[in-house]
Structure formats: structure tokens, C-alpha cells
Amino acid sequence: MPRVSQDHLEARRRQILDGARACFARHGYEGATVRRLEEATGLSRGAIFHHFRDKESLFLALAEDDALRMAEVVAEQGLVQVMRDLLAGRKEDDNEEHPADWLGTRLEVSRRLRTDPDFRARWAERSEQLTKATQDRLRRQREAGNLRDDVAVEVLSDFLELVLEGLVSHLAMGLPADDLGPVLDLVEETVRRHRRNC
Q1: DSSP readout, 54-123?
Q2: Residue 192's beta-bridge partner residues?
Q3: Residue closest to 26 by CA, chosen among 15, 39, 13, 43
Q4: Of the candidates 139, 55, 151, 62, the residue with the CA atom closest to the CA atom of residue 103
Q5: For residue 114, what are the contacts with CB-CB under 8 A and spacing of at least 6?
Q6: How far apart are the first and last CA of the chain?
């Protein structure tokens, strides 16, 4: 039997994660049955669970993948950009992968954190990467003179993460999102350094 290349394995893993993301977003964790996961990924149960031990492991890998992608956006452009991407993706109608795909996973993570102590324990260590990326970005911005210096970086990070969670809840409730750009402008302005005119 020929050996499968690492690139092929990685492509198959990505295919499973992308399909599972759509399936979990559409049906929630409980509703994402194996049959639905097979349909969403275009792969058999055996192929899916060759890469992931079980549905829990698949969901956790997906949540980690999304957190890593979000952390990359934070490192480059800040946490407010993640929020802007969520809003922009919400308006997309195409089938291409875009940041709005994070919303379904983020909602399921939030729900499971509230209701599943085992998941909460497993997720705690993994969620640090987004916080770390946010705080690193804020420190760089402070060093560049762009960030207010009268509030601790940790407090600003907590503030931005709370706004993100509020935005996710807002979107989850189906409330209007078209006019939230100015709100995110205000959030961004809140953390910036204001230079006094002399």
C-alpha cells in the first residue's frame, strides 16, 4: 500500500475541519451527527475519525484552529479587526471560507464553557493564545506610542475580549449588525492614546 504524503494528510485534515465548521455552525454540537459530519465533509466516518479520535476531539481541534487563526489576525491587526471580520463575514453570501465561519464555533465554545466542566478544563489552557496575542499586540502598540498608558494592558485586553463576547452574543441573537462599524470605531478609539494639543 503506498504511503500517503504529509501534504495529502494535511489537506484531508483541513477538509474535515472546514466541513465540520459549517456543520457545527448549522446544527450545533449535539446536532452535528456523524451522518451530518459525513455529508458536510464529503468523507466517510472512517476517514473523519482516522484523523480525529471522536467528535469531541474534532470539535476541540476546530476550536483550537479558529483560535489560532484569530490570534494571527490579532497579532497583525488587533482584536478589533477580528470583530470587523466577524461583521464583514456576516454580510457575505458566497461559499468561500471567511472569518464569519468563526462565529458558529465561538458560540458553541461559549455554550460548552458554561455547561461542560470537562470541556472548560480542556479549553482553559488553549484559550490563552488569543489573550496572549491580544496583550502582545497591545504592548507593541503602547511601545509605539499608539496606546493609552493610563490603563494596564491586561485591563485593556479584558475590555476588548468582553466587547468581542458581547458582539458574538449580539450576532447570535440575530440582532442588526449593519450599523456596528461606528461602535467598533469607538472601541478602537477608547484604547488609543490621545495626544493633547499644546
Answers
A1: SHHHHHHHHHHHHHHHHHHHHHHH-HHHHHHHHHHHHH--SSS--TTHHHHHHHHHHHHHHH-HHHHHHH
A2: 147
A3: 39
A4: 62
A5: none
A6: 76
The per-residue pLDDT for range 13-58, each reduced to its tens digit, is: 999 999 999 998 888 888 999 999 999 999 999 999 999 999 989 9
CATH of 1-52, one of 3.60.21.10, 1.10.10.10, 1.10.10.60, 3.40.50.300: 1.10.10.60
**Per-residue CA distances from 146 to 137, 161, 188 (Å):** 11, 19, 11
Give tens-digit pLDDT for 172-191. Answer: 888 888 889 999 999 999 99
Q: In Å, how far from its chain's centre is CA 35?
A: 25
Q: Where are the domains of the chain?
A: 1-52, 54-191
Query: Which architecture, in CATH terms, is 54-191?
Result: Orthogonal Bundle (1.10)
Give, to the nearest 10 degrees, the angle between helix 117-143 and helix 153-172.
130
- Please state, rounded to an integer, the average pLDDT across all residues of the chain: 86
Amino acid at 76: E
